[in-house]
């Protein structure tokens, strides 16, 4: 079990590069919270809380891990946050407290904690929230990953415009590796239409990059009331999905296209049918999330559904352009996507693709810079002795070459021209960094210090 106290350290590494180490308090879920990272504003643009994102994604213990980002999207007041809190409970007990097994659902009288959920008809969560605690997990092949949970809102309610809705939905789908599309009672034609914007992007991305651009789409139907037609759970879900996604003659062309696109753009499309959770959950204003107040059938479905999404063997890592996305890369994608959605009424697929490619190159540059920094730290870090300018120059050239090699060997989107542009920027950046390192090295030169008249005087007077 990983138990840290809530410490926050800021140190400047020996060669002058600022590194923030944040260790979150992983003691319990009650010390975590939903943090709003994307907020819609009055003028229908979106604000990104970059600081909050950095605190989460650049934490030293998670930033180099591939990301599993599980998002829940859909209309408000349909039990999304409520469901996410069961995800949290599962993640906490499986990956933090090592209990795992069938007991994760908890005691009958335990109140449900996590993302806030509640009755009433006003909106509660607008934009995109991430849970402040990342969960460190290992896949069945041993690969270490970080699991993040995303709660979204803004879709399809009266207060938001079409653009806000489409944006939150598209953003969360493009950023997540598992998108759970939470629907009430059934899968309707409208629900499929909401998928359209980023399906168009998916089509373009697919042509450009090859392979399927998105990973997993999980339809989740709540309050399913026809278990005699299709049983609760994954089997009934498959039946319903097949029925809904079958392309039929005489269907509107646009709809046929969305259906085909869904199959082409996602590696995996599944559906799960949830039963009604009982009247305490759906109507009692004092309901606290206690298991004893939830119908048995609902609980048994939760026990099936949650591990299907979050057990080590079922975790799906995020890939963009065929590359696994690490926590630190995700930051770049957040920035690029929010920017692109702010810049146009509704961005066209090519613009989104361009933004993706830029974020992709930014990540490759950051990795290359990291290579350079690490190697140079070895050469002329604070504890290392003074080096002559010639020696340092030589070392710099070697490290620069290795960094450029790291950049070039990464598969990148956007073609040779874009890569060239980013490479030039990288070289400029590293040359700038080298100037600083060089000055720092000079500072270690005792002789040169003593030859400065002022210092000389000071020494004499001492
Ligand atoms: P969100 O807006 O989609 O995040 O919805 P919330 O999670 O905040 O839940 C809204 C209300 O729906 C709360 O009163 C919950 O108790 C209730 N609720 C949660 N799950 C379900 C469900 O599966 N069916 C029904 N009918 N109500 C639910
Ligand atoms: Mg909610």
Q: SSE order in H/E notation?
A: EEEEHEHEEEHEHHEHHEHHEEHHHHHH
- DSSP helix count? 15
Helix content: 40-55%
Average residue pLDDT: 79
Rg result: 26 Å
What's the N-to-C terminus distance?
55 Å
Structural class: alpha/beta
Molecules bound to protein:
guanosine-5'-diphosphate, magnesium ion
Could you please describe the fold and organization of this structure?
With 462 residues, this protein is an alpha/beta fold. A hairpin with a 2-residue loop joins strand 12 (319-320) and strand 13 (323-324). The protein has 15 helices and 13 strands. Helix 1 packs antiparallel against helix 10 (327-343) and helix 5 (196-209) packs across helix 11 (349-380). The radius of gyration is 26 Å and the shape is globular. Strands 3, 4, 5, 6, 7, 8, 9, 10 and 11 form a nine-stranded mixed sheet that branches. It has a two-stranded antiparallel ribbon with strand order 1-2. The protein has helices spanning 50-57, 80-96, 162-175, 189-193, 196-209, 234-245, 253-265, 279-283, 296-310, 327-343, 349-380, 389-409, 415-443, 446-450, 453-461; strands at residues 7-12, 18-23, 34-40, 46-48, 67-73, 127-131, 135-138, 144-153, 178-184, 214-222, 266-273, 319-320, 323-324. Guanosine-5'-diphosphate (GDP) binds next to helix 2 and helix 8. Guanosine-5'-diphosphate binds at residues 76-82, 117-119, 124, 222-223, 274, 276-277, 281-282, 287.
């Amino acid at each position: 079990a990983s138990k840290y106290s809530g410490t926050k350290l800021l140190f400047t590494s020996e060669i002058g590069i600022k590194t923030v180490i944040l260790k979150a308090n992983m003691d319990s879920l009650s010390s975590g919270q939903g943090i709003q990272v994307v907020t819609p504003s009055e003028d229908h643009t979106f604000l990104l809380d970059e600081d909050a994102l950095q605190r989460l994604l650049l934490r030293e213990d998670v930033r180099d891990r591939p990301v599993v980002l599980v998002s829940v999207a859909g209309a408000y007041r349909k039990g999304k946050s409520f469901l996410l809190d069961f995800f949290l409970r599962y993640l906490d007990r499986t990956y933090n407290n090592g209990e795992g097994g069938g007991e994760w659902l908890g005691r009958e009288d335990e109140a449900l904690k996590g993302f806030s959920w509640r009755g009433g008809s006003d909106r509660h969560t607008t934009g995109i929230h991430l849970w402040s605690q990342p969960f460190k997990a290992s896949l069945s092949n041993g690969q270490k990953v970080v699991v993040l949970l995303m709660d979204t809102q803004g879709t399809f309610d009266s207060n938001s415009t079409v653009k806000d809705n489409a944006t939150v939905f598209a953003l969360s789908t493009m950023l997540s590796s598992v998108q759970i599309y939470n629907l009430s009672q059934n899968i309707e034609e409208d629900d499929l239409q909401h998928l359209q914007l980023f399906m168009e992007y998916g089509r373009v991305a697919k042509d450009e990059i090859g392979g399927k651009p998105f990973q997993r789409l999980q339809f989740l139907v709540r309050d399913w009331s026809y278990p005699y037609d299709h049983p609760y759970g994954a089997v009934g879900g498959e039946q319903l999905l097949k029925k809904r996604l079958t392309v039929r003659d005489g269907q509107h062309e646009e709809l046929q296209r969305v259906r085909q696109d869904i199959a082409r753009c996602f590696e995996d499309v599944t559906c799960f049918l949830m039963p009604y959770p009982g009247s305490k959950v759906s109507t009692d204003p004092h309901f606290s999330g206690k298991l004893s107040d939830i119908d048995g059938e609902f609980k048994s479905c939760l026990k099936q559904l949650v591990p299907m999404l979050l057990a080590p063997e079922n975790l799906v890592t995020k890939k963009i352009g065929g590359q696994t996305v690490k926590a630190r890369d995700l930051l770049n994608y957040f920035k690029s996507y929010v920017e692109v959605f702010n810049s146009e009424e509704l961005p066209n697929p090519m613009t989104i693709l361009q933004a993706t490619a830029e974020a992709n190159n930014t990540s490759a540059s950051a990795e290359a810079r990291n290579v350079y920094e690490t190697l140079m730290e070895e050469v002329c870090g604070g504890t290392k002795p003074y080096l002559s300018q010639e020696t340092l120059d030589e070392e710099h050239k070697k490290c620069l070459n290795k960094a450029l090699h790291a950049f070039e060997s990464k598969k990148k989107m956007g073609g040779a021209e874009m890569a060239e542009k980013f490479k030039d920027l990288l070289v400029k950046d590293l040359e700038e960094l080298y100037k600083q390192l060089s000055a720092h090295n000079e500072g270690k030169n005792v002789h040169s210090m003593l030859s400065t008249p002022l210092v000389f005087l000071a020494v004499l007077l001492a």
